Fold:
Amino acid sequence: MILAVASGKGGTGKTTVSVNLARVAGRRVQLLDCDVEEPNAHLFLRGVLQRREEICVPVPQVDASLCTGCGECSSFCRYHAIASLESGALTFPELCHGCGGCSLVCPEKAITETGHRIGVVETSEADGITLIQGRLDIGVAMAPPLIRAAKSFLSEGIPAILDAPPGTSCPVIAAISDAHLVILVTEPTPFGLHDLTLAVDMVRELKIPAGVVINRVGLGDDRVHAFCREQGIPILLEIQDDRKIAEAYSRGELAVDALPGYHAHFENLLFRSRELYHATRSEHHADLRI
Amino acid sequence: MKVVFSTSGNTLDAPLDRRFGRASNFLVYDTETESFTVVDNRQNLNASQGAGIQSAQTVAGTGAKHLVTGHCGPKAFRVLNTAGIAIYTTDAATVADALKQFLSGKLKTAGAADVDSHWV
Structure:
């Protein structure tokens, strides 16, 4: 099972939930840090690096002797990563999404693809947790290809927890798109509610079952609870607004290790997530039968 | 000689658009015939990225070798430079004012981009 941890709003506790869940799994588990712009799960796990691999995206290379400047490539490229002039095509690798379309549409076969490094994927081992993290190079703006590359390092047959980047845009879609269940972490504040509604729309569009974890309960108001109730979204765990969690976090410690009671809370979250996943699967099968 | 101006309108009285990549129109003035045509550039108003590149390619397509605008970023500059187009920057309010400055020789060509890239 692939369990993704996402949120609309940033800073709600995705990494806290992800690393604590991985710790209580009680069996071999993979933790994938998909927040490739600023991976931070490693701060809490301190594993031993096993493998580091460079990740490249294919970008066009133009053979000037063949290019006629016809403009087929630049009119195809929706990212404007290639400009056509009479003198030939000019490429902007930093804008290229690596789709390869320009080389296909070039009537002169003047475009081949070459690798453009965007970052690394690092794998480390920490007490039964295989941590896989993408790390985008400084100055690179395109996270999705690196997130997809990091996901390709997942081994089948071993449960995986995906720590997604915040928001609801392309990097998040790339991270959660083939998850079996999404845990949406939010907080009971107006911002938390606003961004949760966006995140709920996103998972519905992607047709991935989802449950909610409300963090810092005691802050704000009860509108997040009311929203979940109205929308029929299960609340899988509520975490109290407890300064002790922040203190442990600031020391790089996991709540399940440092604080009494939290091990059971997170075990319960894992249990309820599995239950929700299996419930939605059987519903899905029921739909198919009809 | 053809000179291109970035503008939000389609007459000589129209404001000069200081933004090159996301200007809605390019006014192409022909100094020999003292007449002009307007090229629609609105496709780039909402481009997620690469508006300057696309706009520079559009300017190159007019055949003009002179461009008068407010500011020009590094990617547009690279395309314009490769196409052999001289770039002049001005804070003139209207196309007519900018044209007057250009014709009197007051504008200097820009040797490099004068604003940062929006992307990287």
